[in-house]
Automatic annotation (TrEMBL):
Subcellular location field: Endomembrane system
Keywords: Membrane, Protein transport, Transport
Domain MHD, first and last residues per copy: 178-414
GO cellular component terms, semicolon-separated: clathrin adaptor complex; endomembrane system
Keyword hit for Transmembrane helix: no
Protein name according to UniProt: MHD domain-containing protein
InterPro entries according to UniProt: Adaptor_comp_med_subunit, AP2_Mu_C_sf, Clathrin_mu, Longin-like_dom_sf, MHD
Keyword Protein transport: yes
Biological source species: Lactuca saligna (Willowleaf lettuce)
Length: 415
């Protein structure tokens, strides 16, 4: 049972406090947490559960905002962490993103959502589709009406029928003029390449997203051509676990609209789409740098939005960098960003230049790590393929669509 939730800005300021039970949690717990975060920045950042002298704390960080929950009683830690993740996802969906200004501008809606999502410390309604029927998302019309009428509440007067249904994630008596359902595979590739060019790590974190607009209460079955490659799968509550356990088939009654059906991980991949070859040589207070980027394994689709970034080492006082394709910018925090876009057909993108070291420093002691970004539409680099999507209990035939995309997650090349 959670007793309190705090939202902290990246400066430690308490932006929002929500007491969940009769026992009031003092705000001083946030001061203790922030002092520990400052004194132990590396170790505390990776901890999701922290024991204070008086409470157990659960934390997640999204877009610079820390979601902090407190309890003094025994409870499953994953319940607290999962609930905070649901809160962050719902707020991001409602408010169109997460940042300090958005939270402060819409604190009434944030409080209303927390009132519906948790009851006396226990999670209650966390499905976004049902919450939208209960609390209207902010828009210009609702803000104008609140000014004119003086009514600042966005809570509906009637309780959605789905709250008493056997499928609480789906609104009852849905009717659509056109029935359609779309499946989207969204993958992020995490890669580490060491200074010798050897692939140390390559794995993919993926999501199966669905956008469903189907009438009635449809029953769907989704199968994959190669489900054996999947690891660490997590499902939306609508998925029936037994068909997956026995046959690795997803059987479910979908929510209406866009939702995440499942997440997965594919480990120990050997093929990466892009290579980055950095060369650095330093002497007499200067460092020559040359970086080449190209296609290592052609995915069969165009590689877009290619960006290479690295932080200039502390001993570098100035830099003069140019490229034969794209643009190079050095930001105020000493981050060098090379925007390549799409690879040209007639040449290999190359960036070169000189780094001037601080006075008294002859050679570069700390070499930079290169972060690579890219996006590939129309292909899932994990190799996951959708086999078949069957739809039952539909009054009319439905249109089905499939799409895939892969982008870079933590893609590092060390020099």
């Amino acid at each position: 049972m959670l007793q309190c939730i705090f939202l902290l800005s990246d400066s430690g300021e308490v932006m929002l406090e929500k007491q969940l039970t009769g026992h009031r949690v003092d705000r001083s717990i946030c001061a203790w947490f922030w002092e520990q975060s400052i004194s132990q920045p590396d170790s505390l950042k990776v901890l999701s559960v922290i024991a204070s002298p008086t409470h157990y704390l659960f934390q997640i960080v999204r877009e610079g905002i820390t979601f902090l929950a407190c309890t003094q009683v025994e409870m499953p830690p994953l319940m607290g962490i999962e609930f905070l993740c649901r809160v962050a996802d719902v707020l991001s969906d409602y408010l169109g993103g997460l940042n300090e200004d958005v939270i402060k501008d819409n604190f009434v809606i944030v409080y209303e959502l927390l009132d519906e999502m948790i009851d006396n410390g226990f999670p209650l309604t966390t499905e976004p589709n049902i919450l939208r029927d209960m609390i209207s998302p902010p828009n210009i019309v609702s803000k104008m009406l609140s000014v004119v009428t003086g009514n600042t509440s966005n809570v509906s007067d009637t309780l959605p029928g789905a709250t008493s249904s056997c499928v609480p994630w789906r609104t009852t008596q849905l009717k659509h003029a056109n029935n359609d359902v779309y499946v989207n595979l969204v993958e992020e590739m995490d890669t580490i390449v060491n200074s010798d060019g050897v692939l140390v790590k390559c794995e993919i974190f993926g999501l199966v997203e669905m956008n469903s607009h189907l009438s009635g209460i449809p029953d769907l079955t989704l199968s994959f051509a190669n489900p054996s490659i999947l690891n660490d799968v997590q499902f939306h509550p609508c998925v029936r676990f037994r068909p997956w356990e026995s046959e690795q088939i997803l059987s479910f009654v979908p929510p209406d609209g866009l939702f995440k059906l499942m997440s997965y991980r594919v480990k120990k991949l050997r093929n990466i789409p892009i290579y980055v070859k950095p060369q650095l040589s330093s002497e007499s207070g200067t460092c020559r740098i040359n970086v080449m980027v190209g296609i290592r394994n052609d995915p069969g689709k165009a590689i877009d939005s290619v960006v290479v970034e690295f932080r200039l080492p502390p001993s570098v006082s100035s830099a003069n960098l140019t490229s034969n394709h794209g643009t190079v910018n050095i930001l105020a925090d000493k981050t060098c960003s090379w925007s390549i876009g799409r690879f040209p057909k007639d040449k290999t993108p190359q960036m070169s230049g000189t780094l001037v070291l601080e006075e008294g420093v002859e050679k570069l002691q700390v070499k930079p790590t290169f972060q690579v970004g890219f996006k590939i539409m129309g292909v899932a680099l994990s190799g996951l393929k959708i086999g078949k999507l069957d739809l039952k209990n539909l009054p009319n035939p439905a249109h089905k669509g499939f799409r895939a995309q892969t982008e870079a997650g933590l893609y590092e090349v060390r020099s």
